[in-house]
Specification:
Length: 291
Amino acid sequence: MKVGVHGKDFTRQSAPFIERILDTLTRQKIDIVVSSRFQKNLRLSQFRKYKFKTYEPGDNLKNLHLFFSLGGDGTLLESVTHIGKTGVPIFGINTGRLGFLATVSREEMEGAMEMIFSNEYSIDERALLRLDTDQDLFSDFNFALNDFTLVKKDSSSMITVHTFIDGEFLNSYWADGIIVATPTGSTGYSLSCGGPLVFPNSGNFVITPVSPHNLTVRPMVVPDHAEITFRVEGRSKKFLVSLDSRMATVDESVKLKVKKANLKVNLVQLKGHHYFKTLRQKLNWGLDIRN
């Protein structure tokens, strides 16, 4: 069995936790392949005993059986770009705090990995969105698991985002920007801007304005087979476009179209875990200071 591993920088205090993960993989006689970025963190003396190969972002990882993402949701979103179109299942171990995607905590890690190697898990397919433009903004990585955003670049006045669905004019949003979130991304930036929570397999996108000037403007749920196009203008002539954590600067001449991607991300869901359980834990639903 071959497993890929990607993580971001970690402190010396976190090193024993990373050791435990690598120890478990080694005991299971797993072939370990780590990202070049993560490999730079494994130069401490305690990691020299482990054998692993290294890959570069952009390498074809189709021969992997599983992919471990060590960090928070941002690390898992990076991992999605490493996996690309291969469909390799991603298992997120949360070394941070919140984590809607990387849901397994440090304390749960040993038990979770036992379940992994006992095949006590299922695959949760998540839809991606895709950005088509007349400019080469993100090359082959023009997809997002969480969201697409179009926002003003500086602290100047608001921008106007003219929005169309399947060619039909929807609205001109006078705002700091706009978000198109997948159901997976509905718990992220969109939620903080007043967007609704959307069940992962509901087949929708959420269009959420960022600080709209008109208070009657509200987030809108649309089917994910729709094509959403934008035209932007403002006093500032430069704007920011993002796909998850990747960003690019554009001007008002750019043509932007968001639609559902023709690929999906496979997330590992352990037995006994469920999206509703994650919401209750992360959002503290059901807790009452009177109890």
